[in-house]
Amino acid sequence: MELENFQLKPIGIIHSEHKVLDQIPAQPVFAKDCIGRVMIYRAYLDGLKDIEEFSHIYLLPFFHKVESVNLTVKPYLQNAEKGLFATRYPNRPNPIGLSIVELIEREDNILHVKGIDILDGTPLLDIKPYSARFDKIENTKNGWQDQVDESKANELGLRNYKGKTE
Amino acid sequence: MELENFQLKPIGIIHSEHKVLDQIPAQPVFAKDCIGRVMIYRAYLDGLKDIEEFSHIYLLPFFHKVESVNLTVKPYLQNAEKGLFATRYPNRPNPIGLSIVELIEREDNILHVKGIDILDGTPLLDIKPYSARFDKIENTKNGWQDQVDESKANELGLRNYKGKTE
């Protein structure tokens, strides 16, 4: 069972101002002004119908630059070793990301989004609508993240982000 | 580029009371009392460290029973044709799910979770911690979902769920 493999294929490509891996903000919340374009392959165009009615969407990128995976890592927001699955660190056994971005506009097969924290040229596996009914959870315990104060998070979450350079 | 393929492999298996596809609640919010066990392969055990400090986690299952994909679908909560990517319908080009479940307890390589809306025996691709800082978005516009009232959603979201039969 462990050896079973699944084939996935990109439905599009993500474009962003982020050209250097270690200068990408850690999460959309630290990349609020970063604009991106999600280009969906025309074969999937019909699947985008009605998506423009949502203010926020999930992007599920495939982190194609990931080479090595460690099961414990120091996340960007805290200098302490954590279990990989207790972090959002990109180097994972299945390197699938999860970014909640603001959907500004759809232009045919292109989604203009805000809050992009993904490397330019990253393949996209899926888009899902963010729905408060399913996704906005009240009163969560957020593990080690609750120990990171907001200003420290904002500082570390930017990583080496230098602002828009284009 | 469109033909590029990615290989993924399960990190574990999801066990639940849901044995019949069309009797699975549509989302964790409609499956609040459904208990599940997520069995992580022992090779990935170290990656679970600290996860028990989080009250909620994302499960990213691979919907291995998906056979056909349509780019427009009638979602479970509304009897109207929508673009697939504007829904959480499971039959997707890359059939990756996204369920936010409550983490009750970790017992070595087993996660006991609540609110499971996933078929028994489904392979798991990834786990991510739910973090209010990243994931709890205020003031969203939720597209067609905003037109579905809460009691109607609760009725339709159960689908053909009959309650625990084990």
Q: Which chains make the largest contact?
A: A-B, 72 and 71 residues
Structural classification of chain A: mainly beta
CATH class label of one domain in chain A: Mainly Beta
CATH topology of one domain in chain A, which one?
Answer: Elongation Factor Tu (Ef-tu), domain 3
Going across the major beta sheet of chain A, what is the strand order? 2-3-8-7-4-9
Radius of gyration of chain A using CA atoms only: 16 Å
Give the oligomeric state: homodimer
Q: Kindly state the percentage of residues in helix of chain A.
A: under 10%
**Which architecture of one domain in chain A per CATH?**
Beta Barrel
Please work out how many helical segments of chain A DSSP would assign: 2
Unreliable segments of 5+ consecutive residues of chain A: none
What is the string of helix and strand elements of chain A? EEEEEEEEEHH
CATH superfamily of one domain in chain A: YaeB-like
The overall average pLDDT of chain A, rounded, is 92
Strand content of chain A: 25-35%
Shape of chain A: globular
Largest sheet of chain A: 6 strands, antiparallel, barrel
Distance between the termini of chain A: 47 Å
